[in-house]
TrEMBL record:
InterPro entries per the UniProt record, alphabetical: Bact_response_regulator, CheY-like_superfamily, P-loop_NTPase, Sig_transdc_resp-reg_receiver
Segments forming a coiled coil: none
Pfam family, one: Cytidylate_kin2
Protein name, entry field: Response regulator
Organism, as annotated: Pseudodesulfovibrio senegalensis
Keywords recorded for this protein, A-Z: Phosphoprotein, Two-component regulatory system
GO biological process: phosphorelay signal transduction system
Length: 405
């Protein structure tokens, strides 16, 4: 039986359409939450980190950690396992975009309505005022557009070329939309064949290779065909041959791989520095200090050591960023205007105890040191600090985080 994937706009009554299809068929619903949970189990990543891949706002640390790209790789693998195990699935939500386009027994459906119809549904079903509903729809559409571009490369998430059926729910009606989907399940073009089964196996192997490469800090596009792997490097690279050699060595060791080819993506022929992620080094460091020149210079010096960091200049900004993002290590000054470092440390450890905090101060006393260590600081260092000492302390904090993880 065919697989159905349903992508939709917020307040487009997709839930009602999906329910009618499920009631009339033997399909099992696969939600974003289930795919995220499976990806978390496979990868060891936190579900919250994987879920953030659906958001248009990437982590400020993502250019160093490649967390979003790693999350997408594991989401693809989770989806590939689902498709390998069963056919009669209905995948609804962001995860509907994950299935490889070459799998012919997957029917891709998009459910959408015009803005006025969506605002009306938001008001009738949820009681939202028009202004609030419009804001929610705009944010959700923004997230979906960013997600579709990240997964498929398409600029328009509602483009007809992405789907087998694009159904305007408001004008077509919930019942008729469901009926049209059910009718198409009998289309011979959607029957499971040996070729479509092979496409699932290819998708599974490609997804496996992608996660292996992601685990080594690489982010490249992977395609598979009967054991043959094609890697596309969509980055400007300074030492291309060396990178290709490293990628081939990694991928050749994956079970099921019979050959590896590499190519450079269109428009990526300039020479530049290619950075892979080194997971032995911290990549999500938050620097908190009101001395702007000092902290910016410190960030640059850490980057030269392949340690990624973000910078804020006061305690309140650090706490705000912590609410929206997930720094792993914080380098924190004590004496700052507004909320001081000790209070920031206290709040961090009370709400996010997994964040390791390194105090770096030029004004602290022995009493301050005792208080900070009692509150759970990882280390207490004085300015000016030897960059090698700080780097080693960061590595030890990162080791502790990885061990706890």
């Amino acid at each position: 039986m065919s697989v159905i994937t349903v992508f939709n706009g917020l307040f487009s009554e997709a839930g009602l359409v999906v329910k009618r299809v499920l009631d009339a068929t033997e399909h099992r619903l696969i939600t974003d939450q289930e795919i995220v949970a499976d990806a978390a189990k496979l990868s060891g990543m936190a579900e919250s980190a994987i879920t953030r891949a659906f958001s248009s706002g990437a982590s400020v640390f993502n250019k160093f950690s490649h967390e979003k790209e790693r999350a997408i790789a594991w989401l693809r693998l989770a989806m590939a396992h689902k498709l390998e195990d069963a056919d009669n699935l209905l995948v609804s939500g962001f995860a509907s975009q994950l299935a490889d386009r070459k799998i012919s027994h997957v029917m891709r459906v998009c459910l959408i309505s015009d803005m006025q119809a969506r605002l009306a549904v938001a008001e009738k079903q949820e009681g939202y005022a028009e202004k609030h509903a419009h804001k929610l729809i705009h944010k959700d559409d923004e997230d979906r557009a960013a997600w579709v571009k990240a997964v498929t490369g398409a600029e328009d998430p509602w483009a007809e070329s992405l789907y087998d059926m694009v159904l305007p729910v408001a004008s077509t009606g919930v019942e008729r939309c469901a009926d049209l989907i059910i009718e198409q399940l009998g289309n011979k073009a959607l029957e499971t064949t040996d070729a479509s089964r092979q496409a699932v196996r290819d998708f599974l192997l490609a997804a496996t290779v992608e996660t292996v490469l992601a685990g080594e800090g690489h982010n490249v596009t992977v395609r598979a065909h009967k054991g043959e792997i094609t890697l596309t490097i969509n980055k400007h690279v300074l030492m291309l041959e060396r990178l290709e050699r490293e990628l081939k060595e990694i991928v050749s060791g994956v079970d099921g791989v019979t050959g590896v080819n590499t190519q450079v993506g269109k428009g990526f022929h300039q020479t530049d520095i290619y950075r892979k992620v080194d997971f032995a080094l911290p990549s999500k460091v938050l620097l908190v200090d009101d001395e702007r020149e000092f902290v910016q210079t410190l960030s640059e010096r850490l980057l030269l050591r392949d340690m990624g960091s973000a910078v804020v200049y006061d305690g309140e900004s650090a706490l705000d960023l912590m609410e929206d993002d997930e720094p792993e290590v914080m380098i924190l000054d004590l004496k700052m205007p507004g909320i001081d470092g000790i209070e920031v440390l206290r709040r961090v450890k009370s709400t996010r105890p997994g964040i390791e905090v390194i105090i770096l101060t030029g004004h602290g006393s022995e009493k301050d040191r005792e208080v900070c260590m009692e509150l759970g600081a990882f280390a207490y260092l004085h300015k000016p600090v030897d960059i090698d000492v700080l780097s080693e302390t960061l590595k030890k904090a990162n080791e502790k985080i990885n061990q706890n993880r």
